Amino acid sequence: xxxxxxxxxxxxxxxxxxxxxxxxxxxxxxxxxxxxxxxxxxxxxxxxxxxxxxxxxxxxxxxxxxxxxxxxxxxxxxxxxxxxxxxxxxxxxxxxxxxxxxxxxxxxxxxxxxxxxxxxxxxxxxxxxxxxxxxxxxxxxxxxxxxxxxxxxxxxxxxxxxxxxxxxxxxxxxxxxxxxxxxxxxxxxxxxxxxxxxxxxxxxxxxxxxxxxxxxxxxxxxxxxxxxxxxxxxxxxxxxxxxxxxxxxxxxxxxxxxxxxxxxxxxxxxxxxxxxxxxxxxxxxxxxxxxxxxxxxxxxxxxxxxxxxxxxxxxxxxxxxxxxxxxxx
Length: 329
Fold this sequence. Notes:
The protein has 329 residues and is an alpha/beta fold. It has helices at residues 12-21, 28-31, 64-72, 83-89, 110-114, 131-135, 152-167, 170-192, 223-230, 279-282, 288-291, 294-297, 314-328, and strands at residues 40-43, 49-52, 59-61, 79-80, 100-101, 120-124, 141-144, 200-209, 212-217, 234-235, 267-270, 301-303. It is built from 13 helices and 12 strands.
């Protein structure tokens, strides 16, 4: 696995927290309907009540989904983890040049955060060690789950609503959902009129290490897998025995041999980074197993545009839907 690739691999403890937190954010909207300047109390993914003096204005985010949520709601974060990576992998929103880089997503710089005069830090359950406790010494922290393979789309909207409540942007969140639902409905109608309607799709990303290619399937419990199901597609990976997804992100693992179990009429779609090697064009053209696959022979392999963050929010998911519609139209 390439070290610079932004893979989301959670520890067992983090995954346990993510599962335990499922459903804890859904009551956030009942905690406070405070007007601007009035205290806001929010229950986060830990079940912890966090009280803010009012809607947070100066906010830092340690994970890119929260960064995207904020920008989509009309709030530019003051601090963001790995800005270069964010701007490479998530082109669905535009981050202001004034944002300060606060370090890596798993281990943000506590010292840098302390200099930003923040109202709030939004993190996911992927932080290592005692980072949350360290940040809370100077700044309120709200924790959101990174994902939930049981209900990725529902968890995305719970996260958006919680972030919106903290920033006083509930109306903007409602508008985001209205627009997103309309986009899904329009896309479903368009796709239903194409030859690809109801087709099995095997969405994935892949990389090479030591001469071996690893394929990461986005299973039914993944966020993109859930979007594809909403659009009327079948998940082709469900027909490949032995692939299991993690409980937070719904991601699996297989190799080129595993692809032989996919249906012959599979639409094989993937995303690769802007600067990453594309194993399907660089490493596999001479691989006899790969070239003999029916969907490869039928030219049903498509690389979707880079810059769509596969674990992002409504903006990224909207761009993914647009890419799918363009691919099948």
